[in-house]
Write a structure and sequence with these properties.
By secondary structure, the chain is mostly beta strands. The chain has 2 domains: 261 residues, Methylamine Dehydrogenase, Chain H, CATH 2.130.10; 154 residues, Kelch-type beta propeller (Neuraminidase, 6 Propeller). The chain has 4 helices and 33 strands. The N terminus is likely disordered.
Length: 458
């Protein structure tokens, strides 16, 4: 079978990415010019000792101006870091497996922090996660279960709080500050409510039974929202203390059937990232499969209303088959200073740090062709102006020492408008390198904290 037209466009485009200021012409239309440029960023390393390998969601910019990050390593440990932008210093605060007393016990451990963190009364709260953090020869039932944790901002001390459940860790998390509650969505599809003052967790019931959405949000009234395949929406109503499945409002998605062989199909038909905006009193999010930016007005009608805003995938995918678009990353940030959305899509393939994943039919053929060349998994930056409704392609992110950003797992904007993001970076220093990308043309990588200043004050 012949490769699709979009394959030739993507292949030609990516091969030219290493020439930052070059304009690339489409074979189909010589007048269709896609400008690919690189933009300067700062990159800060985490640790030469702990060698963390992944990150999902867990970046938070606190009221004290410091940045808190949770990093992960499959089959090992989750670590918490604190970065002070004023002094440009990185501190390792805690190893979660040691804090939980799991280290050296021959059991499965808390190897991930996979949630959005929240702040209340001088503390940063988050829940832990396991997910295959232990060798197959050890019984997975040995895992003691996830816990709530908090970071005391004044002292930088990380504290272990109470248990969440007996085995299933958190993927999504949000907070109702007025009622002093934290809601956590666990891998088993159950929603949990944590009473902060009582240090007590209540199970609210099932909201999904398959590939769980990675982010949930709380509106201005304390209601909690999530999504499940295919584009369905659920709501925890705080006044009625009940979970409802919506029947007349759904997330516009490209529908796909479920597959036990490839659960990413499910992930394509949910939102990947979503964030409540207290200014517009709506939520903004990204559809996982299409990378479509949307607005969700929860107050428009009994179940709310979705409005599609703009396609935020990398430029090469926008004119082709939407089924070829890599699934969205978790790296989206809302800048209140500019009233802009910042999003970090990938340029080629579904990114998962050491692994590059594709769908099971045409994407497999696409992967085989791509792997024959030198195509590193580059990350791109796109913005959407909420005031004007315009999208802008910022470009490829490149550090001061010439290294590219390869895939981002989380992003946040600070009060000054700077965009901070965490993920994998091309790495030249072997002391920081944690592994090699599973892709020809891509070498060693390390986890890093990046900073993009849209005002040019790098």
């Amino acid at each position: 079978m012949q490769c699709s037209k979009i394959f030739y466009l993507v292949l030609f485009l990516i091969f030219n990415l290493l020439l930052p200021q070059r304009a690339v012409e489409s074979r189909e239309n010589p007048k269709n010019i896609i400008e690919i440029k690189s933009v300067p960023i700062k990159r800060y390393h985490f640790s030469k000792i702990h060698k963390d390998a992944q990150m999902w969601s867990a970046i938070y910019i606190a009221s004290n101006g410091k940045i808190y990050v949770g990093l992960c390593t499959h089959a090992d440990a989750a670590n918490v870091y604190e970065f002070d932008p004023s002094t440009q210093t990185m501190r390792h605060l805690a190893n979660i497996t040691e804090l939980a007393g799991e280290r050296g016990k021959g059991i499965w451990t808390s190897g991930k922090i996979h949630v959005q963190m929240q702040e209340l009364d001088g503390y940063i709260y988050f829940g832990s996660f396991c997910e295959d953090n232990g060798p197959p020869v050890i019984d997975a039932a040995s895992y003691r279960g996830p816990h709530w944790y908090r970071i005391e901002m004044k002292t930088s001390k990380v504290e272990l709080l109470s248990s969440i459940n007996s085995s299933w860790g958190l993927i999504g998390q949000t907070m109702d500050k007025k009622k002093r509650l934290i809601f956590g969505l666990a891998e088993d599809g159950r929603l949990y409510k944590y009473y902060i003052d009582d240090d007590y967790t209540e199970c609210l019931g099932k909201v999904d039974c398959w590939d769980i959405c990675r982010t949930i949000f709380c509106d201005d009234q304390g209601n909690v929202y999530g999504t499940c395949p295919p584009g369905m929406v659920w709501k925890y109503d705080t006044q009625q203390d009940r979970i409802f499945d919506f029947h007349f409002t759904s997330l516009p998605v490209i529908n796909q059937s479920r597959s036990l062989a490839y659960p990413m199909f499910d992930r394509n038909v949910t939102w990947r990232y979503i964030e409540w905006d207290p200014v517009d009193n709506v939520a903004y999010g990204i559809v996982c499969g299409s990378n479509m930016l949307f607005k969700y007005d929860v107050h428009d009608g009994p179940e709310g209303k979705f409005t599609m805003l703009e396609l935020m995938c990398a430029p090469a995918y926008r004119a082709g088959d939407p089924m070829d678009i890599p699934f969205a990353t978790l790296a989206m940030a809302l800048s209140q200073k500019e009233r802009k959305i910042y999003f970090f899509p990938v340029m080629s393939g579904d990114f998962d740090y050491g692994a590059i994943q594709f769908d099971v039919t045409e994407k497999k053929k696409f992967k085989n062709n791509i792997d024959s060349g030198s195509l590193p998994p580059l990350s791109f930056l796109v913005t959407y102006d909420l005031k004007t409704g315009t999208r802008e392609d910022v470009g490829l992110l490149r550090t001061e020492d010439g290294c590219y950003a390869w895939g981002m797992g989380g992003a946040k904007a600070d009060k000054q408008g700077r965009i901070w993001f965490v993920g994998a970076f091309e790495e030249k220093d072997e002391e920081y390198a944690v592994g090699k990308m599973n892709r020809r043309g891509a070498g060693m990588y390390s986890m890093g904290l990046g900073c993009y200043d849209p005002f040019g004050k790098q």
